[in-house]
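Input sequence (182 aa), recorded before submission:
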Amino acid sequence: MGTFTGVRDVESFRTRFREMITTLRTVQRELGGSLTEAQEFVNQSRQAGVFGSTAATRFAGTIRSVSASTGMDQGALIQLASSGAAIARSVGGRGEQGATGALRGVSTVSSALQSGMISEAMLSEATGGRTGSDAMQSFVADMMQQSGRFSRTAAGRYSIFGLSKREGTGLDQGALLDFAAG
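Predicted structure, C-alpha cell format:
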C-alpha cells in the first residue's frame, strides 16, 4: 500500500501499521466485505488518485452513497472513478478531483433519470445505444472529456478565471453553483 515508505524505526512502523489497520477496518465497515477486499479497495483508490487514510475513508463513504443512490455496483463505480482520474490528469488536473467529479456526475445523471428530467431513451441516444449503468458511465466520461477540451480553449480559460476566488486559491463554490444552474 506504500504506507511504510520512509519508516526508519520500530515506533514509526508500529504507528503506521496501526493507522493502516484502522483505515482498512473503517473501509471494511463502509463497504462491507473482508479486510482483504478493503485493502484491494484502498489500492484501487490510489489508482484513482485517492491517497491517505482520511481520503480513502471519505472515498469509501462516497462510493457507498453513490452506489445506494444509483444502484450501480461498487466495482463499476471504482472503475468510473479511475477513468475520471485519468481524464483529469490528461488535462492537468488532479486524479482525486477527476474521480470525485465522475462520481458526482453519475449521481447527477441518476437523479435526473429518477426525477424524469431525462428519459432512459434520451440517455441511450446520447450514448450510442447503451443502456443502464453503461449509459450513465459513458455519458459521464464523455462530458468529462468535453469539459477537459473546453478548459484548454480561450473561452474555457476565461471561464475558469472568472470562477476563481479573488485570492487565487481555487474556484468559488458559490459562483460554480450559479454557473451550473445557468
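Checked by second reader. The chain has a mean pLDDT of 90.
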